[in-house]
């Protein structure tokens, strides 16, 4: 069976989906044609917009609902729906993988909760509607933990690695830069006050000279990176990238864990929409 990649997508503002001229909208809308893999059997998505005390997954008995978790946008946006089927087999497999957590002393033992009434938040359905507009692939969403621990989310991502060989596409949705206050007070013609962090994360993920151990060590020290706290006053939009790295950086001595920058678009001095893929 095909080994599927792991994706980190920058979902941007909710109404980005309405802007057909936007470069990121165009990229995500063309992903299905651009991707070199076949259609996945199911998609597991992790979004910055769902946190629980412990990890949770959607386990609805019907198609997933669309959550319009925003306000003040165009009326058209609230009329959009994305209601894919769920995947009982993927739910069972994730439950099985979580049950194996803590099997070694270096790994946290994770609990997994079920959310039968939870739908898809905009960090999930807006990119998926662009990528797979027919909603013809079953979807399960996995939450973040509200403690936002980098190492724990990385380890959780590692738990998900076997899914890549089982027909599952893992998509993690967040932002490499997310400071809305800075966005609104920075003029469009100014130089970026947080470009150093964007440069840092792109370098860490894509530098082919780094070993797997070096890449992981440096990545998990993100709080020491230049301008990190300015780029992320709270890191909920960055943590999905850590999950993606955990799932994408293989537990193999032959793997360097390098990612490919598959898209990047500076829409504003404080807002760069970057997407990465681990093949």
Task: Please provide a written account of the structure.
- The chain is of the alpha/beta class and 279 residues long.
- The protein has one domain: Protocatechuate 4,5-dioxygenase, Chain B (3-Layer(aba) Sandwich).
- It contains eleven helices and eight strands.
- The chain has helices at residues 23-29, 31-34, 75-79, 88-99, 122-131, 150-159, 180-185, 195-206, 212-219, 228-231, 239-248; strands spanning 6-10, 42-52, 55-58, 112-115, 139-145, 168-174, 260-268, 271-278.
- A six-stranded mixed β-sheet has the order 5-2-6-1-8-7, with helices on both faces. A two-stranded parallel sheet has the order 3-4.
- A hairpin with a 2-residue loop joins strand 7 and strand 8 (271-278).
- Helix 1 (23-29) crosses helix 5 (122-131) and helix 6 (150-159) runs parallel beside helix 11.
- The longest helix is centred in the middle third of the chain and has 12 residues, at 88-99.
- Residues 20-250 form the Extradiol ring-cleavage dioxygenase class III enzyme subunit B domain.
- Its cofactor is Zn(2+).
- This is Extradiol ring-cleavage dioxygenase class III enzyme subunit B domain-containing protein.
- It comes from Heterostelium pallidum (strain ATCC 26659 / Pp 5 / PN500) (Cellular slime mold).
């Amino acid at each position: 069976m095909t080994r599927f990649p792991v994706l980190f997508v920058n979902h941007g503002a909710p109404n980005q989906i309405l802007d057909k001229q936007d470069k990121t909208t165009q990229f995500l809308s063309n992903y299905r044609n651009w991707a070199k893999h076949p259609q996945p059997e199911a998609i597991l998505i992790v979004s910055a917009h769902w946190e629980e005390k412990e990890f949770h997954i959607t386990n609805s008995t019907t198609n997933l609902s669309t959550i319009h978790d925003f306000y003040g946008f165009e009326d058209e946006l609230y009329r959009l729906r994305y209601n894919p089927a769920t995947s009982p087999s993927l739910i069972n497999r994730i439950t099985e993988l979580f049950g194996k957590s803590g099997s070694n002393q270096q790994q946290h033992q994770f609990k997994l909760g079920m959310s039968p009434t939870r739908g898809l938040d905009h960090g999930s359905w807006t990119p998926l509607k662009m990528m797979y507009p027919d909603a013809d692939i079953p979807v399960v969403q996995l939450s973040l933990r509200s403690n936002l621990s980098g190492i724990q989310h990385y380890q959780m991502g590692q738990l998900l690695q076997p899914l890549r060989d089982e027909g599952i596409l893992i998509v993690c949705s967040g932002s490499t830069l997310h400071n809305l206050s800075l966005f609104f007070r920075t003029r469009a013609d100014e130089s970026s006050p947080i470009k150093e962090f964007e440069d840092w994360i792109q370098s860490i993920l894509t530098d082919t000279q780094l070993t797997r151990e070096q890449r992981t060590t440096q990545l998990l020290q993100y709080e020491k990176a230049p301008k990190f706290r300015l780029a992320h006053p709270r890191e909920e939009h960055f943590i999905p990238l850590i999950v993606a790295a955990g799932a994408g950086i293989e537990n193999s001595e032959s793997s360097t864990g390098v990612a490919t920058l598959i898209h990047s678009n500076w829409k504003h001095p404080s807002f760069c929409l970057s997407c990465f893929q681990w093949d």
